[in-house]
Design brief:
Layout (H helix, E strand, L loop, with lengths): L2 E3 L8 H11 L7 E8 L8 E7 L2 E2 L11 E8 L9 H15 L5 E11 L3 E8 L2 H18 L6 E2 L5 H31 L9 E6 L1 E6 L2 E6 L1 E3 L6 E6 L3 E7 L5 H4 L3 E3 L8 H10 L2 H10 L12 H4 L19 E6 L1 E9 L2
Parallel strand pairs: 1-2
Antiparallel strand pairs: 2-3, 3-11, 4-8, 5-7, 5-9, 6-7, 6-17, 10-11, 12-15, 13-14, 14-16
Helix pairs in contact: 2-4, 3-4
The ligand Nc1nc2c(ncn2[C@@H]2O[C@H](COP(=O)(O)O)[C@@H](O)[C@H]2O)c(=O)[nH]1 binds next to strand 6, strand 13, strand 14 and strand 17.
Length: about 350
């Protein structure tokens, strides 16, 4: 079977399904894995939340400009946490520091840095990508297509020369190093402000927007997380729900069918415009509950900017089935958000 669904196929939105079916018909596409966070992407030919394999060709534009985008965590045992984060005292200071931590910031959209906690650990979680270097690589890819296969969206595999792959790896490496910088500097912030004691926190990183060039072909992951060895990965759910921490079950046959990938989030159920409509349909008491819970995100007028509203939990799909439909995953932990910083250096 060419396409394997790790989600209820009948629940996939129609426009996402249509673009997926059109893509499936192309002769040079091998197997496809579809994850629960699948959703329509207006920019390119295949929805987000999908991985697919090719052997003779590769699709350089399919992951968009933010190649290398992913999620990293720094995990701190509860025994090293000295006190709860004081939002009133330190939210703005943390936000300002996050702003200055790297040259290019977190970026817009869903990119975020959060402190999240489970029963046993405090996590610093960051979701960000390759920023301008990714845009540069995207433009290089457009030029390559124009030169070698005008009017098409694929290149013959021979065009993935050692130089090309080296350049591509440089972009992925840059995105990964930015994530590491964010979590390490946030750890410094927490140490300096006596929130955590010195220790040996554990770092884990994963990427969900990439082409993986291997001997047997190319795995394209468009908003689907790469599973490597037995490493843990974060599946962020939403600003109000937190995240799932999972790892691959290497004994489960589904892992190969999933192309060593999994969902990279809960996935949007409402477009950004529909999310705003939903917000305006809420009762005053419901809105006030959000205002109280996320008081640090209110603007000077005491309301949320629309960029924040578009990210609230109602924008995202229910995540209850995430593990049930992906049997190749082992649940390691589940977090609840403490504080989230969004949108820096847009
Ligand atoms: N823990 C948090 N998860 C979040 C937040 N905002 C979004 N999300 C989830 O991340 C995925 C990935 O987003 P994408 O832009 O790469 O598609 C998304 O599907 C949500 O489930 C947050 O603030 N905290």
């Amino acid at each position: 079977m060419k396409t394997v669904y790790f989600t209820d196929r009948s629940a996939v939105e129609q426009n996402a399904l249509q673009s997926l079916l059109a893509f499936e018909e192309k002769p040079n596409i091998g197997s496809i894995a579809v994850f629960p966070d699948i959703h329509f992407c207006s920019e390119r030919s295949i929805p987000v939340g999908v991985a697919f394999q090719t052997t003779e060709v590769f699709y350089p534009l399919v992951t968009g400009k933010d190649m290398g985008c992913g999620v990293a965590y720094l995990r701190i045992p509860r025994s090293e946490v000295l006190r709860p984060f004081d939002k009133a005292r330190h939210y703005r200071a943390l936000e300002r520091e996050v702003h200055r931590m790297t040259e290019e910031g977190l970026g817009g959209g869903n990119h975020f840095l959060a402190l999240e906690a489970s029963a046993d650990y405090l996590y610093i979680i960051v979701h960000t990508g390759s920023r301008n270097l990714g845009i540069y690589m995207y433009q290089q890819n457009c030029r390559l297509l124009q030169q070698h296969n005008p009017g098409q969206d694929w290149l013959p595999i021979e065009r993935a020369t050692p130089n090309y792959r080296h350049e591509y790896e440089r972009v992925l490496g840059y995105a990964a190093s930015r994530r590491r910088e964010f979590v390490e500097k946030t750890y410094d912030f927490l140490r300096r402000n006596q929130y955590v004691a010195a220790g040996a926190p554990v770092f884990a990183d994963s990427c969900h927007n990439l082409l993986e060039f291997a001997a047997g072909g190319v795995i394209h992951r468009k908003g689907s997380t790469q599973l490597l060895g037995e490493s843990e990965v974060v599946i962020p759910l939403s600003m109000s729900r937190g995240s799932l921490i999972v790892k691959p079950n290497r004994w489960n046959r589904a892992l190969e069918q999933a192309l060593w990938s999994c969902a990279h989030g809960a996935g949007r159920q409402y477009s950004r415009t529909d999310t705003l409509k939903y917000w305006h349909s809420l009762k005053r008491a419901e809105k006030d509950a959000y205002r109280q819970r996320f008081a640090e995100l209110l603007n000077r007028q005491g309301d949320f900017d629309s960029s924040i509203l578009q990210e609230f939990d109602f924008a995202y799909k229910d995540s209850a089935a995430l593990l049930a439909t992906q049997p190749h995953l082992i649940r390691c932990d589940e977090t609840r958000p403490i504080v989230t910083v969004k949108f820096t250096g847009v």
